[in-house]
Amino acid sequence: MQIVIDLDNLEDTIERIYEQYYLDVYKFLVSFTGNQSDAEDLTQDVFIRVLKSLPKFNEHYKLKTWVLSIAKHTAIDHFRKKKFYSLFEDNFFKQLLSKEKQPDEIAENLEKRTEINTALTTLKPQYRMVFILRGVNEYSIKETAEIMDWSEAKVKVTYHRALKKLKEELMGKSKGVLENANC
Amino acid sequence: MQTVKEFLTRFKNSEALVPRQSFVHDTKSYLKIEAARLERKNKVKKLSYIFFSTAAVASFALWLTLLGGVQTIGNTSSSLMNQFVVPFVDSSGNDDEEPLIFVYHTHSTESYLPLLSGDKAPEAAFDDEINVTLVGDKLAATLEESGVPALHDNTNITAELQERELGYEDSYNVSREIVDTALKEHGEIKMIFDVHRDTQSRRNTTATVEGVEMAQILFIVSSSSQLYEENLAFATQLHDALEASHPGLSRGVFDPGGGPERSNPYNLDLHPQSTLIEIGGVHNTLEEVNRSVEVLADVITEFIQ
Fold first, then answer.
1. For the domain bounded by B88-304, which CATH number is listed?
2. CA-wise closest residue to B4 among A15, A54, A113, A119
3. Chain A: which residues have CB within 8 Å of chain B?
4. Any stretches that span the bilayer, and where are they (chain B) (predicted)?
């Protein structure tokens, strides 16, 4: 479906863009952060940024990769902020941030998070992004290159490295379990 | 290696990759509100600021010097207070007369931004005191004035929900009890109105009829009500009457329909002549809302007689 960007009708335009891409954006962000509430906040941020940047959109971009590149920037900004917080006591800030959440909601988040987080979050952010875009969102090399603003060759190489790292991580985990079992 | 593939397959099918339904819905509404706000801002920018400021300064000077503005300033604070302290409708004055109209509010804390202090976001336009129950008060009072006995219930349903530890989605279950009781106690009730306010942008909830800005009215019916046909006929008649007297004031009759999780009968199955009614949106002023309520009361009065 071709979405028409009508700057005189932002309401309909953003609604169409949102409906078309919210799943892609959410999937990318929840995989990247490994956390539902962060993914929700960031998804909103992304579409607000999209809304405000619409006048800058031009025909040279493809809407899909343009929206996802905004998601990429949002994720990177978030990663930097997180890194800053984690200089302090990690838990302290988490408690602050999720104050309004119900206790059972927190438990649910944690459960989902641990499953996702385990292996993925050990990857460097750029590896993680490329892995998610290619592996989870199932974008082509060309699309991934456009979103990352890289050459296709760099996407290929990074994806392979990410795969290798992930493999090592998963192997290491199972080896650890075996060793523990032997004790 | 098998592990990564396995991991990826399990991961891709993981429920955690799918956003919560309510989040998806709320975000969409939020974006639309933001878009409308941005659009308005852009439009205003296009107009000349200078024109407005000159006009404002000129008229202010005129008001101060010629029209007794100085005195008015002194009185403003008290008149502002009076505006909010709309008398609580006391139907006891007409105790001998059985109410023909019943007005209530399932979302009783829905409010209007111009009435709230502080710079609130549209999605935060809720208040325990200053809210849509004022509109119900006004509707009931106007009806009483024109000789139509009306009963208004201004239960704070949100507080009730909190007390019973229920969620917002249970609002209609709680308001159902209120309607049930009213119908049991007052057998003469001919019409029931669940008065709400809309969340749409100002441009979608405001009409200019004969040069006067008014809060638009929208009738909501539900195909999952067992009395759908009757509800629809009733709402349509009211819409037609409004259309005849004030073209454009009513936005029509709307059935939100939707999937099974959204098919709520909105308690309209309790009475054939009942409807849910949105009067204005978050951006409308009390004056705009009150003007529409007066017209609506006229139409209802005509209908009853």
1. 3.40.630
2. A119
3. 8-11, 13-15, 18-19, 22-23, 26-27, 30-31, 36, 39-40, 43-44, 47-48, 51-52, 112-113, 115-116, 119, 135-136, 163, 166-167, 170-171, 174
4. 47-70
